[in-house]
Specification:
heterodimer, A: alpha/beta, two-stranded parallel sheet, B: alpha+beta, Cytochrome-c3 Hydrogenase, chain B, globular
């Protein structure tokens, strides 16, 4: 499916989905509550079949967090970018590691560095930092007088 | 190096491999649960070389951050730089001169060759053959010398910059690459004679570490790891960048999905890289090696994603820009990270000795995983 067809198809399936203009790929923003159902639908629905999750990014916008999921279908070769907005005080989102196995590591990374909590994750622990590390290093308000050199 | 930790309630043995272990090729720490010699679970512990490159990049300009990326996958440093340069060029809409495009592809393929050579030597060493390592390093040295002459460095080249390449190729470059091609053509057959047909080697590789095509996609595996399971995922073919679309080369896929299949993919990829270099080395267009760009780069507000094929798989650069001289957020999708996540799945049920072979065919580079 091309960009427009994908947009129409997803709009039919999820009327609440908001699309972003411009950009290389179809970009859709959905609610955190809808994410699990949305993920299952795009993974298994005929004609969509997004089976390859290639990038998971957490972005700190100071007022809120955004989880960005880049997906491709190895069958249809179309790409989709899904964005989920999360609360800044309590960033919680449903895990998708049962749908795409690669998400298990990527979500642990987002938890470790951004402090996003993934409910239902099988093994949500620190990945890069030590277990007793305080704070979430990739957040914009993170301060570390020892390890960070300000220029 | 291997130290007993304890036993679980079921009587299984839990051991640590690494972080300082020759077979992990870096500082990777694996906690392995064993029943006798059979692996029940492999749990990678990462972060021994984590430098938070993504955070560092947030305070570096668009020219500076590329240098840091050489330190991620240091065996594919050209290709990492290339991915970043492409992403900045996409944002700035810089048109790269034809000469630079060809030089970039040549460098990428030389890097891929050097990386696969090192992998081949280390892989064979992992399964007990020490000689191939010296063979591989002898040939790799030639590539390093070529790199040194043109880029001024042997490992972290930092040769690709937004707009083209840092400097023009050295006058000796074409001559030396051609000499290398001729030299390596004979050597690669020697590689096959030395290792590929070896009965001990084959029996350690065939049927070990099976990865089904479905799992390969689900675990986000790319590069030779996924192509060894028959998945077509070569970015050079699927989303051609630079001059890859105009070149004659095959995407190598082998359907078996075991260690030997991944081994064969890389061996054939070396031949494909040789053929790409051969096609380009006499056809470097004349002209500028770098487009004219502003001294200070400012990406417009927005999001940019570029993907390139490193020796390990798909490398993605995701830049979120707020219109400043530094990126607001940058994300590197490193191939090794996703490939490693499949290790547990592949190793379960095999013997502990096979784990070394499986890790060898994943071609892990730890700084690429830890970033």
């Amino acid at each position: 499916m091309n960009k427009e067809e994908l947009k129409i198809r997803l709009g039919e399936l999820f009327p609440a989905a908001a699309f972003e203009e411009g950009g290389e790929w179809t970009t859709v923003t959905i609610d955190a509550a809808e994410w699990e159902g949305f993920a299952r639908e795009i993974r298994w629905a005929e004609g969509l079949a997004f089976d390859y999750l290639f990038c998971v990014t957490a972005v700190d916008w100071r007022t809120h967090f955004t989880m960005v999921y880049h997906l491709t279908s190895t069958l249809h070769r179309h790409t989709l970018v899904v964005k989920v907005k999360l609360d800044h005080e309590q960033p919680v989102i449903r895990t998708v590691s049962d749908i795409w196995r690669t998400a298990e590591f990527h979500e642990r990374e987002a938890f470790d560095l951004m402090g996003v909590v993934f409910t239902g994750h099988p093994d949500l622990r620190r990945l890069f930092m030590t277990d007793d590390w305080k704070g979430w290093p990739l957040r914009k308000d993170y301060e570390d007088p020892v390890n960070m050199i300000k220029l | 190096m291997i130290e007993e930790v304890g036993t679980t309630e079921q009587g299984d043995l839990v051991i640590n491999v690494g972080p300082q272990h020759p077979s992990t090729h870096g500082v990777l720490h694996l906690v392995i649960t064993l029943n006798g010699e059979t692996i029940k679970k492999v749990e990678p512990h990462l972060g021994y070389i984590h430098r938070s490159i993504e955070k560092m990049c947030e305070s570096l300009s668009y020219r500076q951050f590329i240098y840091v990326t050489s330190r991620m996958d240091y065996l594919s440093s050209h290709i990492n730089n290339h991915g970043c340069a492409l992403c900045v060029e996409k944002g700035m809409q810089i048109e790269v001169p034809a000469r630079a495009k060809v030089i970039r592809v040549l460098m990428d393929e030389l890097t891929r060759l050097a990386s696969h050579q090192l992998w081949w030597g280390a892989m064979a060493m992992d399964v007990g053959a020490l000689t191939p390592f010296f063979h591989a390093f002898r040939e790799r040295e030639t590539i390093n010398d070529i790199m040194e002459e043109t880029c001024g460095a042997r490992l972290t080249m930092n040769y690709m910059v937004p707009g083209g390449v840092m400097a023009d190729i050295h006058p000796n470059f074409q001559k030396r690459v051609k000499e290398f091609l001729q030299f390596f053509r004979t050597k690669i057959d020697e590689y096959d004679e030395l290792v590929t047909g070896n009965i001990i080697f084959c029996s350690r590789m065939k049927g070990i570490g099976y990865l089904s095509p479905e799992s390969a996609v689900s675990y986000g595996c790319t590069g030779p790891t996924a192509r060894g399971s028959g998945i077509s995922c070569d970015i050079r073919k699927l989303y051609p960048y630079e001059v890859y679309g105009e070149l004659q080369f095959d995407e190598v896929t082998v359907a078996e999905g075991d260690c030997f299949a991944r081994y064969m993919v890389r061996m054939q990829e070396m031949r494909q890289s040789l053929s790409i270099i051969e096609q380009l080395i006499d056809n470097i267009p004349e002209g500028e090696f770098q487009a004219k760009t502003k001294a200070v780069l400012k990406l417009p507000k927005g999001e940019f994603y570029s993907r390139v094929e490193t020796a390990r798989g798909e490398f993605g650069v995701y830049i979120i820009s707020e219109g400043a001289t530094t990126p607001y957020r940058i994300k590197f999708r490193s191939p090794g990270f996703s490939n490693l996540s499949a290790l547990d799945h592949m190793a379960r049920g095999h013997k502990i000795g096979d784990l070394v072979a499986i890790m060898g065919t994943l071609d892990l580079v730890i700084p690429d995983i830890d970033r």
